[in-house]
Amino acid sequence: MIPPALLAELGSLELVARAVVDGVLHGAHYTDRPGFSQEFAEYRDYVPGDDPRFVDWNAYARTDRPLLKLFEGETNTRLLVLLDGSASMDAFGLPGTADGVRAAYGGVSAPSKIRFGAYLAAALAFIAARQHDAVGLLVFDEHPRAYIPPRPGRGNLQAIYHRLDELKPQGGSDWREAFTQAASRFTKRGVIAAISDFYCDPADFGRSLRILGSRGHDLIVFHLLDEAERAPRVRGGPRLRHALSGHATLRDVETGDVIEVDANELGSRYPRRLAAHEQALRREASAVGADYIRLNADEPLDRALTGYLRFRARRP
Questions:
Q1: 292/290 Cα distance (integer angstroms)
Q2: Quick count: other Cβ atoms within 10 Å of Cβ 7?
Q3: Quick check: 23 and 300 in contact, CB under 8 A?
Q4: Most buried of 50, 52, 126, 215, CB within 10 angstroms?
Q5: Are 110 and 298 in contact (CB under 8 A)?
């Protein structure tokens, strides 16, 4: 189990994904599933745990490298990761930090939501690649910003890592547009994993989610929150649920709108409103058969990946 604060020290997203996934899969029975098609896709280096039956021994004799033959089979799963790249995903990050790490409450470092989301997206892509599945990425805010079509192979995986590494959160988020674009581009039945803080109306989110559910896709929703959202402070003061008095000025990082709130009322009502919002999102996801997983950006990725693997195990 690797704390999120240490992930940035690993450097590349590829190392992060490999370390996190290997940690989750350690000691568990895990099998790579090559495609049933005989259409050759590519080679990759053999790693411990791979099935030696798929090593190309002729290539090994020529190169002295154990290379695994990968085949592109239509029976394999296709995964599309949708990542929210809106401004709220970096609302509590420190401006100008290259590694996306901020100072969390109590002096403990933790990644911003967008960086945590990138770690999760990279780990999901790495799992898919290990299973020889096609994996793609759609990053969006108010409009789809980047799209990498689902394909098998290391080249596509590296393209996903590169795109995740250069993320710069901006603007608002439009789930209907993102899901409509995903549905039009991701036409064959597959798995769609959505990662966001879901600052949206749950009913609107549910209607957008049904766009994908109606296409027969298997859906999993990762709802990601920062500690500052679970227990907010105003300008470094005590947490709202403790002792807060007077009025506070809050600014929406996506729209720029500013509102005045009664801090005492906010401190008492906020936890209930947040819990109700989460419950509503969970209901909307359940209504279309989607799995819902709530995550904290200051906690290890283990629970997210374990939840995803259980989700995949229930699907053909």
A1: 6
A2: 27
A3: no
A4: 126
A5: yes
